[in-house]
Amino acid sequence: MQTERLRADTDGVTRAASVLAAGGLVAFPTETVYGLGGDARNGRAVAQIFAAKGRPSFNPLIVHVPDIEAIAELADVSPLAEKLGAAFWPGALTLVLPLRPDAGVSPLVTAGLNTVALRVPAHPVAQALLRAFGGPVAAPSANPSGGVSPTRAVHVENGLDGRIAAVLDGGACAVGVESTILSLAGAKPRLLRPGGVTAEALEAVLGEAVAQGAEDTARPIAPGQLASHYAPTAQVRLNVTVPREAEVWLGFGPACAGSDLNLSTSGDLTEAAAGLFHALREMDIVAAGRGIAVAPVPETGLGRAINDRLRRAAAPRP
Ligand code: TXA
Ligand code: MG
Q1: Of 20, 14, 7, which is closest to residue 165 (Cα–Cα)?
Q2: pLDDT the model gives residue 56
């Protein structure tokens, strides 16, 4: 299969929507990362998403819709879900909600769970595609499973060329880390994955501290819980202020003057998140067999999502 690169204009969006309607796969930009989209109601399309990524089928997918009205057709929307949706949608938040029995979503999407992860992306190209297609779109990040998430069309092509019908080129993603996943399916809200919406911002709306991680840690329910993820080819070592001879150094902030690449010379976490995955890809090329040493990044705001991805990149490989 030849992967078509589509311009993010009316023709490109129309073509992408028709590929989805025919059961094909299209990578498309969101403000977080590029997603690999397929019709969430079409089991064959969803099965192809897992196949194209080499993704374990017990790992469920996020369903994308254009607005909260479309969310209510798929899941039970509690007053709290409505409040969070009003605060953060469209945007970088994914809510895990009780799945409606009449949702019509393929059980492959939810891995057989009675909950569904839902997101309303803000990116204008994602919005245009979802409206042109007119149905729920299942979309994990558009990278081979376990690899670094794509924040540009060329990243998608590097990983999935020949395995998907098309990629809609919407330029570089502004947020750069995946959405924050918050589960509202249990007794209390639970943060399953830190992401583009900070825990501080969530807590300001919730009015209380938010519990973190899976309730049952023996069963991973978000990719953040699978240790090795977002991994480049090179070995990654974290919190490094003095790199070794045989390492390239990825810096953060003004103290890292000698670094090979700096996520943000001014120490801006928003800038660092936006460039994180591209930087990991670049460093992987520059490293050429050497290790990648990464400077410390503060564990506040977007720094939590950045450090989460860096820890996965540095985790022992399976
Ligand atoms: O920013 C993002 O979230 C991007 C863009 C494309 O929207 N998507 C993304 O998808 O990061 P993915 O598949 O790489 O990560 C989503 C994760 C799944 O791996 C899964 O662990 C979790 O969301 N998830 C999906 N459904 C769930 C459910 N019902 N309960 C708990 N976790 C769920
Ligand atoms: Mg992913």
Answers
A1: 20
A2: 85
